[in-house]
Design brief:
heterodimer, A: about 150 residues, alpha+beta, seven-stranded antiparallel β-sheet, about 35% strand, globular, B: about 210 residues, 6 helices
């Protein structure tokens, strides 16, 4: 059975470096994503998607597959309970291209997803929200798009 | 007569905007506002179900025409889109473009759905699939910052260039192929002549069917 992918494209008025760092700097992700993305981001290292409340809970774990700052980041993606299970481990690729001088085209490709899974449904609803919040954060300096009632990956 | 129950979604794009439903509605339907983020194109709409719909080129000529299927401010706007003035395209059945606006927490969720009632080839959908993210990213920027993101809008720019080249399907096809090649949207690229053939087949298949 082929594994589905989810692709989302957005254009952001920012430099490729700012976009890359807004995805990998935990202090920045905490401001628009509601989570800290924590890793040293070296190929082969682990990364964690940590809640910013006091629970210390980790919602997603994975490994850094490729880091080619600022144009490309590839990571694996799984719920902590499914870590190490290849059937339930997916892959997220961030492609960042300069666009028209003062903007970038950001393409997020979430591939190798488990068909009909809660993860597939969750990320399909979540990426548009997270990446809308990222765009607002970089262009306006603040983002209030992600509220307590909204879903996100 | 458009039977909207026969239309199936082919391209869906969702964005969240720090704004109000009323402002998003205005951004989508006001001619002067649309010009700011739609690559200079402007939407002109008769505000009622059954009313006329146009998307005008920057020079004022009609680029898309259609009819309003649903007009429910500030929640839902749906209209048919037919490409005008381009050999090949104007014989194709119309697409149905629907904007849905919902309050979501403190922001607005905007869902654009492009639907068809026929087996439209991916090559034809490619323009919209590369164009909508650019157009709606720019709309979000205008509402949140007052400034568009400077994006050349996919199918709009392709069609404009096609128009400059004499309105040929080949001119449009070349642009769309280059664009989808750059964006990596397709593994297999249709050639320029193949694309023109796809348009011709699609049009003749419909008119004879």
């Amino acid at each position: 059975m082929s594994k589905p992918s989810f692709v989302y494209v957005t254009y952001i008025r920012a430099t490729p470096e700012k976009v890359f760092d807004a995805i990998t700097d935990g202090e920045l992700t905490a401001q628009y994503w509601g989570h800290r993305n924590a890793s040293d981001w070296k190929a082969g290292s682990t990364w964690e998607h940590q809640r910013i409340d006091d629970s210390d809970k980790v919602d997603i774990v994975g490994k850094v597959i490729e880091n080619d700052r600022p144009q490309r980041l590839v990571i694996s993606w799984a719920s902590p309970d499914d870590a190490g299970n290849p059937e339930k481990t997916s892959r997220v690729t961030f492609d960042i291209e300069p666009y028209k001088g003062d903007a970038v085209k950001l393409t997020v490709t979430h591939s190798e997803l488990e068909p009909d899974s809660g993860m597939l449904r969750g990320i399909s609803a979540g990426w548009p929200l997270v990446l809308s919040a990222l765009k607002s954060f970089l262009e306006t300096g603040s983002s209030t798009l992600i509220g307590a009632t909204q879903r996100e990956p | 007569m458009t039977d909207i129950t026969k239309f199936k979604p082919k391209t869906v794009y969702v964005t969240y905007i720090a704004s109000t439903p009323e402002k998003v509605w205005q951004a989508l339907t006001d001619p002067a506002f649309t010009r700011q983020y739609f690559g200079g194109f402007s939407i002109e709409v008769e505000p009622k179900a059954g009313g006329a719909f146009f998307l005008r080129n920057p020079n004022g000529s009609v680029h898309m025409s259609g009819g309003v299927v649903e007009w429910s401010p500030p929640r839902r706007f749906s209209s048919t889109w037919t490409v005008e003035g381009m050999e090949g395209f104007n014989k194709l059945p119309p697409s149905l473009v629907t904007y849905e606006i919902e309050q979501s927490g403190g922001s607005v969720k905007l869902t654009m759905t492009e639907a068809s009632d026929w087996d439209i080839p991916d090559d034809i959908l490619a323009g919209g699939r590369s164009g909508w993210p650019a157009i709606l990213s720019s709309l979000k920027s205008v509402l949140e910052t007052g400034q568009p993101t400077r994006c050349e809008n996919g199918v709009a720019a392709g069609l404009r260039r096609g128009g400059e080249e004499g309105g040929s399907a080949e001119g449009v096809a070349e642009f769309l192929i280059l664009r989808s090649a750059r964006s990596g949207a397709f593994r297999r690229m249709a050639s320029r002549s193949e694309f023109a053939a796809i348009l011709r087949d699609a049009a003749s298949g419909r008119s004879s069917g």
